[in-house]
Amino acid sequence: MDEKKNNIRLVKNGGRRVTGSMPPDDSNLSSSELLKRKISYQKRQKERRVQKKRRRTVLVIVALIIIVLILLFLTPIFNIRTISVDGNEAVSNEQIVERLKPLIGQNLLRTSDGKIENMLKEIPYIREVSVQKRLFPPSVDVVVTEYAPAAIIRTGGKSYVISSDLRVLGELQTSSGSLPVITGVEIERAEIGYDCEIKSDKGGVLRTMLQTLEKTEVIHGVVEINLMNLTSITMNYDDRLTVQCGSQLDMEMKLRMFREVVMSEELSQNAHGTVDLSETGNALIIP
User: Fold this and answer.
1) Confidence (pLDDT) at 26
2) For the chain, where do the domains classified as CATH 3.10.20.310 start and end?
3) 134 DSSP β-pair partners
4) Average pLDDT over residues 156-175
5) Per-residue model confidence (pLDDT) at position 181
6) Residues of CATH 3.40.50 domain(s) within the chain?
7) C-alpha distances out from residue 282 to 191, 220, 256, 279, Å
8) The CATH fold of domain 79-146
9) How many CA atoms lie less than 13 Å away from 13 in the CB half-sphere?
10) Which of 98, 122, 164, 202 satisfies CB 3.0 to 4.6 Å to 211 for a cystine?
């Protein structure tokens, strides 16, 4: 009981009694120990001041960030004012402007690139979209890459323009003599903005032929591609050459061989006849 009383002290403070533990008795400590305690105390005090300063700094930075974000996202300062588009040929400027008109007045930073891309990719002819944003003045620069018309398919009494990877680009309103007509295929589905669905394996063969003819830059001379018989595929070139491609085997190599024939001096620009490519690696010209 006496030991507990020694650890309790009563202090008169404005009529109140405050109890607490007795402070450690430093009277028996050496001067070196007292110095160590003093240094330790000063170090702790310094660390507390540094921590408080850091907390204040963090709070100031957070407040500034919040203010900047409010200015960027919630004020009209960075609303889109103008939109420029480049790279379009088949798609008119009016069609693109009409599609992007809802973006004018929207916040530049809250308008994602993906949103702009999706808005333009709804146009069947547009293949890729590149978006660049400018803060001063707030504007959007758009560069589009279009699908190139490669051929014409006919189904249900209508004619459709397709790309070399068989995307249906639109309905043909007027006759076009610059694109090959695809015959000998049965169309399951031809919906604008989607891939043309062709029965059997003919779709893959047609895709290979159109893409190779595009790469070799002879596609615009092709009048017709007939896929009625996959063991005896034929083409009409410039209404003067019948091209016998044989089977679908090595089709890319055969069409590259045909380009060499067309570009060679052996075949004049007005020559008529047959070019037999059915044997891979050989081209037989029959007048």
Assistant:
1) 56
2) 79-146
3) 139
4) 91
5) 96
6) 151-286
7) 39, 23, 11, 6
8) Ubiquitin-like (UB roll) (3.10.20)
9) 6
10) 164
Question: Which residue is associated with the tokens 């030991």?
Answer: 3
In this prediction, residue 29 carries a pLDDT of: 62
Write the single-letter amino acid at 36.
K
Q: Are 140 and 108 in contact (CB under 8 A)?
A: yes
Cβ 258 vs Cβ 225: under 8 Å = no
Pick the more confident residue, 82 or 3.
82
Q: How many of the other CB atoms lie within 10 Å of CB of 50?
A: 10
CATH architecture of 151-286: 3-Layer(aba) Sandwich (3.40)
Pairing of strands 241-246, 273-276: parallel
Contact predicate 169/163, CB 8 Å: yes
The closest of 262, 253, 241, 240 to 282, measured between CA atoms, is 253
Alpha-carbon separation of residue 246 from 117, 239, 242 (angstroms):
42, 19, 12
How high does pLDDT run on average in the chain? 86
Q: Determine the average pLDDT of the residues in 144-168.
A: 95
